[in-house]
Amino acid sequence: MSVANLDQYHHDYLAIKDDAVKLTAGLTYAQFNWRPSPKEWCIEECLAHLVLAGNFMLQQIEPAVEAAKARGLTGAGPFKLSGFDKFALKHTEPPIARKAPAPKRFRPLHDQPATAIVPSFLHLQDQLMLWMERSAGINLARVKVKTPLPVLKLTLGGAFAQIAAHERRHLAQAWRVRKALPNT
Q1: Which of 2, 63, 99, 111 gives the lowest tally of CB atoms within 10 Å of its CB?
Q2: Which domains can be identified in the chain, with CATH numbers?
């Protein structure tokens, strides 16, 4: 992917919502929280991690969009992704070549019910799509968004793309857990 396109991202987030609903359909509490091994995350932890990370990114996107509007940083896309955007996507989009531990603040609690996590995850997708709508007309390549590593910033378009890639990565991980569930 070399350009930022809000229509594509909106489609991506709708597909992610649909995938999460299918992933969690019919799971018991025990299945939702089952770990393949003590060092691997369960489905609950994958989704809870995405809620933590996604909410952090929303907290960065919201003021960036408002500041861009105030400064008149407008433009018509599609917009090119920066070199760092492309680098971040390459190392986030599944399949991944190298695992990396989640920063401490994004490590989820274990043993939470689907009734708490799934609605939060779906709401996050709605919020992301809302901020995409609010970003319409903004130059997605000129607006910078903070990342969890404060010295590194993504473009606004890159942030929307990277969040979706990160979600696909952990949804794929959660699907592997679902397929490995013991028969109960």
Answers
A1: 99
A2: 3-180 (1.20.120)
- For 3-35, the pLDDT digits (tens) are 568 999 999 999 999 999 999 999 999 999 999
Measure the CA angle with vertex 136, ends 132 and 142; round to 5°.
90
Q: Can you say whether residue 111 is alpha, beta or left, with left for phi > 0 and alpha for psi between -120 and 50 degrees?
A: left
Q: Which residues contact 55 (CB under 8 A, 6 or more apart)?
A: 124
Gap between the Cα atoms of 14 and 170, Å rounded: 16
Let me know the angle formed at the C-alpha of 170 by 29 and 59, rounded to the nearest 5 degrees: 100
**Stated pTM of the model:** 0.94
Helix (H) / strand (E) element for 128: namely helix 114-134
Copy the structure tokens of residue 60: 């960065």
Give me the DSSP letters along 62-102. HHHHHHHHHHT-B--S-EEPPHHHHHHHHTTSSSPSS--PP
Tell me which amino acid residue 2 is. Answer: S
Rounded to whole angstroms, the Cα distance separating 115 from 152 reads 35
Hey, what long-range contacts does 69-74 have (CB within 8 A, 24 or more apart)? 69/138, 73/138, 73/139, 73/142, 73/143, 74/137, 74/138, 74/139
Closest listed residue to residue 130, CA positions, set 70, 61, 77: 61
Query: What DSSP state is assigned to residue 105?
Result: G
For the chain, give the number of residues: 184
